[in-house]
Specification:
Number of helices: 6
Number of strands: 2
Strand content: 5-15%
Order of helices and strands: EEHHHHHH
Helix content: 55-70%
Distance between the termini: 53 Å
Strand order of the largest sheet: 1-2
Radius of gyration: 19 Å
Shape: elongated
Structural class: mainly alpha
């Protein structure tokens, strides 16, 4: 079965035609693909991972390193995930999963960190966020140091 070709309106002078739409940080192309968004997020996370490696080489402790990894890399991957994850291809999902696995392998995050597919489950996102908040953030805010290394 052939797809119908969509007839675009005629080009207006002085107004460039956009191929991508960026809504609240999510990039969607004209075919409702979020591959471009995936490339951008993974690229930003890779830069963050490199910065974390530099911080580790400068002596940042593992507890703080894991905290920063979860706050930045996992946070970037989970931003508006309910909106864009359903539009991803299998290859995009594998790239995102590989990023989390790379963080575990390199020691930048805890070995018991759930994979991305598990984190995307809405109940696990909520419970992981609450766990993270109660075990990591609140003790730091209240001035009580945690000695557990995740």
């Amino acid at each position: 079965m052939r797809r119908r070709q969509i007839q675009l309106p005629s080009h207006l002078e002085g107004i460039p035609r956009a191929c991508y739409l960026n809504m609240l940080g999510i990039t969607i192309n004209s075919h409702f693909s979020v591959s471009e968004h995936g490339f951008c997020v993974i690229g930003k996370c890779a830069q963050t991972i490199q910065a974390l490696r530099i911080l580790r080489s400068q002596g940042l402790c593992n507890v703080a390193l894991h905290l920063v990894y979860r706050s930045t890399v996992i946070g970037k991957l989970l931003y508006a995930v309910n909106v864009w994850w359903g539009f991803t291809s299998a290859a995009d999902r594998q790239r995102a999963e590989a990023l989390v696995k790379r963080g575990v392998r390199s020691g930048l995050c805890a070995a018991d960190t759930p994979n991305l597919t598990e984190l995307i489950d809405v109940t696990k996102i909520t419970s992981y966020s609450l766990f993270f908040l109660t075990k990591e953030i609140l003790p730091i805010i209240s001035g009580k140091e945690t000695t557990t290394d995740f």
